[in-house]
Amino acid sequence: MAASDNHSQSVRVEVRGLRKSFGHQEVLHGVSFTVERGEIFVLMGPSGSGKSVLLKHIIGLEEPDAGDILIEGRSIRDEGVMDLFRMAMVFQSGALLNSLTVGENVGLYVAEHRLKPPAEIRRVVAEKLEVVGLKGTENKIPAELSGGMKKRVAIARALVIEPQLILYDEPTSELDPLIAITIGQEILNLRDRIRATSIVVTHDRDLAFGIADRIALIAEGEILLVGAPDEVRRSAHPLVQRFLNADFKPKQ
User: Fold this and answer.
1) Residue 188: enclosing H or E segment and its boundaries?
2) Closest Cα to residue 166, out of 115, 219, 128?
3) Is residue 186 within 8 Å of 132, Cβ to Cβ?
4) Nearest Cα to 134, choosing from 123, 143, 145?
5) What integer pLDDT is reported at residue 93 of this predicted model?
6) Are residues 15 and 50 in contact, defined by beta-carbon separation less than 8 angstroms?
7) Helices in 22-173 by DSSP H: which ranges?
8) How confident is the model at residue 4 (pLDDT cuts 50, 70, 90)?
């Protein structure tokens, strides 16, 4: 599954020697990897391995203790760099506001920052909801939606800003297998339609091997292996094989 070279709207991401501790617990231990333009790059690992913390560093929600993150060769620590690129995050919970309609949730960022007039916001919201298969749901409230629908609303909200980089945090968590397959297909479809770079954090092995151009396996804050899905499956690394065979136990 090779990503196209024609990805003018996508960005290259480099993570260099990232370290992060909370109190006396070091969560990331010198993590390094590169995500190419237009790639679906999956960070896979057991719960508590540092995946979500790593994702929050890439989007700028956490500051590293050491190391750096570069987007198109520019450090996100440099003033103004984060404003140069359009990045969106699909949170594990969906992070929808129950007091707002689906349409208001999807258009919230654009409306709050007055980036478009109201009529244009409504048009864009309807367009993005149609992209994720939720045409006509603008006036529903989140409580009326299934778990899978909420995930797709969160994806539509990310699409409104025409992102160059989309980060997904456990996009299939708490979903049944059939709905999880739908979400995975949605991620693939979006890569082809909007040409964004995608970084997906998951412990769902079926999702990872179903959508990834490359997979990084992370355990206890360290990258064990980076490679194409077939390379990961063939790895002789004992911790990789233990995770793939579902009996990996992180240290307490």
Assistant:
1) helix 177-194
2) 128
3) yes
4) 145
5) 67
6) no
7) 51-59, 102-106, 108-112, 118-131, 147-159
8) very low
In the chain, DSSP assigns E strands to: 13-22, 25-35, 40-44, 66-71, 74-75, 87-90, 165-169, 197-202, 214-219, 222-227
142 DSSP 8-state letter: G
Residue 69: pLDDT band (50, 70, 90) is: very high
Nearest residue to 199 (alpha-carbon basis) of 178, 168, 175, 155: 168
Give 191's Cβ-side CA count (13 Å radius).
26
d(CA 28, CA 19) in angstroms, rounded, equals 5
Distances (CA, A) of 172 to 111, 115, 148, 151: 28, 31, 8, 8
Do 3 and 36 contact (CB within 8 A), yes or no? yes
Q: State pLDDT tens for residues 217-227.
A: 998 899 999 99
Residue of 238 and 103 predicted with greater confidence:
103
Question: Which phi and psi (to 5°) does residue 163 adopt?
Answer: -70, 150
